[in-house]
Write a structure and sequence with these properties.
The complex is a heterodimer of chains A (286) and B (209). With 286 residues, chain A is of the alpha/beta class. Chain A folds into two domains: 2-30 and 252-279; 40-245, Rossmann fold (3-Layer(aba) Sandwich), CATH 3.40.50. Chain A has eleven helices and six strands. Chain A has helices spanning 2-9, 13-29, 40-51, 70-86, 100-114, 133-141, 143-146, 182-194, 204-215, 225-238, 247-279, and strands at 59-64, 91-95, 123-128, 174-178, 200-202, 222-224. A six-stranded parallel sheet of chain A has the order 3-2-1-4-5-6, sandwiched between helices. In chain A, strand 2 (91-95), helix 5 (100-114) and strand 3 form a beta-alpha-beta unit. In chain A, helix 4 (70-86) packs parallel to helix 5. Chain B has 209 residues and is an all-alpha fold. Chain B is 75% helix and 0% strand. The two termini of chain B are 25 Å apart. Chain B has a domain at 129-209. The chains are: A alpha/beta (286), B mainly alpha (209).
Amino acid sequence: MNEFFIRLSRIDRRYIFLFVAVSVIIPLLYPLHYPTRVTRHTRAVFDIVDQIPPDSNPILISFEYGPSTMPECHPMAYAILRHSFARKVRVIGITLSADATGLGEEAMQTIAREYDREYGRDYVFLGYKPGVTAVMLSIGEDLKRTFPRDYYGRPTSEIPMLVEVHNYEQIPLVIPLTGSATATFWLIYAGARYHARVADGVTAVMASELYAYLQTKQLSGMLAGLKGAAEYEHLVRSAGYTLSEGRASRGMDALSTLHLVIILFIILGNIGFFLSRRAAGKGPRS
Amino acid sequence: MIPMNTLWTWIAALLTLAIFSFLYKDNPFYKFAEHLFVGVSAAYALVLTYYNSFIPNLIFPVFREHNYWFLIPGLLGLLFFARFIPRIRFLVLLPIAFYIGGYAGISIGPSLQARLLKQLQGSMLNPADFADPWMFVNKVIVLVGILGTMLYFYFSREHKGVLKAATNIGIWFIMVGFGAAFGYTVMARASLLIGRVQFLLMDWLHLIR
């Protein structure tokens, strides 16, 4: 028995990759429908968007993710846009990461078509602006001076939904969707400096760092990784704003199964590690 | 005639498989996909920055609006290239100094407010916390965690006696923090894999809808 665990702990890693692949593919092909439990931080973001009056001041979504973090952040963008457009909440889209430009535009156009929203009246995409912190601070002074033209070259001063929008004071919520440290920058430069209300949608890697800011209420809410995106999709669907099941919700079955497989391998690996040390005549620590 | 969407999906799928082939072992397909990605990313960022920053922030103001003040930051930016000319290499210090000075001035105030003062305020116990027993327990845990962790990084005195007990508590909190961060990292990486597999099964092979 001991020999079995020791040999298992030395298994070729490619077999582990194979197990991982199977544990992802099977639940995607045959969904297990694990229940979705919504965390209060995701619900907080949903509630804020849900309480913004239709056709009033717009929320600002900053797309700051590239193809490498797309599986986590793109479903968040879709879910938040579905929620906003279904409730006729106006949206300003910007990007602070060059990679995100195409993804942000695609998300806004796709969901706007789904809900028959009109460009310039219900939503606007201002495109990419380099500078990160400089852009965040500049929006606090004057949005239209920061973005003189939208992504398509139209002067922002001529866009109807931006006529009354000058800075963060007219923006009820800022939602950066990001896989980088800009999640913290927003709460420092837009939140602390200009008192903007900030809720982050971040990759899971970033999430643990941001809990401290949720505790002090500097962040109004947070969507954490694929799980956060699936929770938001669940809330949007439960509220009747959409009938479609998002990609994050479909991915959660695979994620949960994969986590179980990884936990199993960690346990087996540790048993093998301790048994091999014992066989070599060493204690658990040396 | 193959529709463009289908063509791009096939290209993306084959490149995804080329990258995944590294899991078996390094090979020319992986190398090709990796180099292609680096090249395309760099070119994409360069072109976007040119059209979204250089043109609207320098070319338009100077040549269309005749606002020549914009030449000053333009010149400062140009000095970054001075490092390639040995005789005037020292001039690169000018834009760097300007950038560091400006950035420090901009960020010290808000960073102090958000990262230190607000966080300190959040970790303090106040009379309102005693009203809700659960909130009180949470706040005490946060306070013990902060004090223990800060004492762990106090190196001006040997960690023994009461200080050792306190730093041990700090180590536990640090380990829990690392564990949470690592767990989230595993989740993030797994999510990326799921995203790619979804693309292959849904958009490429149409095995799921």
